[in-house]
Amino acid sequence: MDIFFRDPNEILLPPEEVRLLALKAEPWADGRRVKVFLEVTPFQKRPSADLVITNAQEDEVARANILETISRKMEINMHLREAQPGGEYSLQVVVYYQKLPPVGEESEVKEQPDPLIVDRGQTNFTIPLSS
Predict the structure, then answer these.
(1) pLDDT band at 1 (very low <50, low <70, confident <90, very high)
(2) What is the C-alpha to C-alpha distance for residues 81 and 61, in angstroms, rounded to an integer?
(3) Which is it for strands 60-66 and 73-79: parallel, antiparallel or unpaired?
(4) Are 53 and 78 in contact (CB under 8 A)?
(5) Which residues have C-beta within 8 Å of that of residue 67, sequence separation ≥ 6?
(6) Partner of 32 at 20 to 30 A CA spacing, among 10, 68, 100, 108?
(7) Is-contact 67 76, C-beta < 8 A?
(8) Within 13 Å of residue 123, how many CA atoms lie on the same side as its CB?
(9) How many other CB atoms sit within 10 Å of the CB of residue 72?
(10) Do 119 and 22 meet the contact criterion of CB atoms below 8 Å apart?
(11) Tens digits of residue pLDDT in 61-117
(12) Contact between 38 and 20 (Cβ < 8 Å)
């Protein structure tokens, strides 16, 4: 198990200033999974992220949500929902904070307020076509 210690010299940023620093997608050799690396700036409040992989036809083939991460550096595996994966793909990431209603007003709210989107990123990758 890895234990991450925060650098005491890091300046923790408020939600409005949190940004995506790194984004990388590496397909596994089996062509059915993709390892995703994601890094954000140091933060005061824990951010969330939505990750979506689309194929060349812009069909969604994988989706993941990271809710209020405790780590600046994240690594996840995403499984492609395609019978025959292969070709060009795009990974889009949205880093956000969910705005919650004030305490005591939850029962009056019928739907969640729009999230505060602080950054977006995209990277493309290729999976060789299997013959």
Answers:
(1) very low
(2) 5
(3) unpaired
(4) yes
(5) 48
(6) 68
(7) no
(8) 17
(9) 19
(10) no
(11) 999 999 999 999 999 999 999 988 999 999 999 999 998 766 666 555 567 788 999
(12) yes
> How many other CB atoms sit within 10 Å of the CB of residue 83?
5
Residue 128's CB is within 10 A of a number of other CB atoms, namely 11
Q: Which two tokens stand for residue 68?
A: 């209020």
Sole residue written with tokens 């050799």? 29
Which class for 39: exposed (0-12), middle (13-18), buried (19 or more C-beta within 10 A)?
A: middle
The number of residues in the chain equals 131
Q: Report the predicted TM-score, pTM, of the whole model to 2 decimal places.
A: 0.86
| Angstrom distance (rounded) from CA 111 to CA 2 | 38
Give dist(CA 41, CA 72) in Å, integer: 7
The first and second tokens of residue 83, run together, are 């019978």
Residue that the structure tokens 């060789």 belong to: 128
